[in-house]
Amino acid sequence: MDNVLYQTHIGTWAILALAVIVSLFYRSFYLKIFFRILAVLMLTSGIGLAISLSFPLVFVMKLIIAVLCIGLVEMLLKREKPIKSYVLLGSTFISFLLLCLIGFGVIRF
């Protein structure tokens, strides 16, 4: 069961990153819906992994940062002008980079 959750989580992250990049340049209602479905699937599989491993501190921190990152991407996609807010774009990139570093085990608690 852990392997299924892990593979779902990793695959969803990869597709979610591509969906965000495409959504930044091509505005579509269906891409936003696709992003939200992937975000829910990613959060569900991540919470399932955390439950199966008895909530280690790394997963709790990663969950908090992931929710923050999803919120930042939602704010970025709501903008009328795609890439005019460099602070929002930069903070989204930094939170995504931090998530990747925690996920690949470079940063440990």
From TrEMBL:
Instruction: Give one Pfam family, short name only.
Output: DUF1516
Keywords for this entry?
Cell membrane, Membrane, Transmembrane, Transmembrane helix
- For this protein, the parts annotated as crossing the membrane are 6-26, 33-51, 57-77, 86-107
InterPro entries xrefs? UPF0344
Superkingdom in the source lineage: Bacteria
Q: Which residues form a coiled coil?
A: none
Q: Does the keyword Cytoplasm apply?
A: no
| The protein's name in its UniProt record | DUF1516 family protein
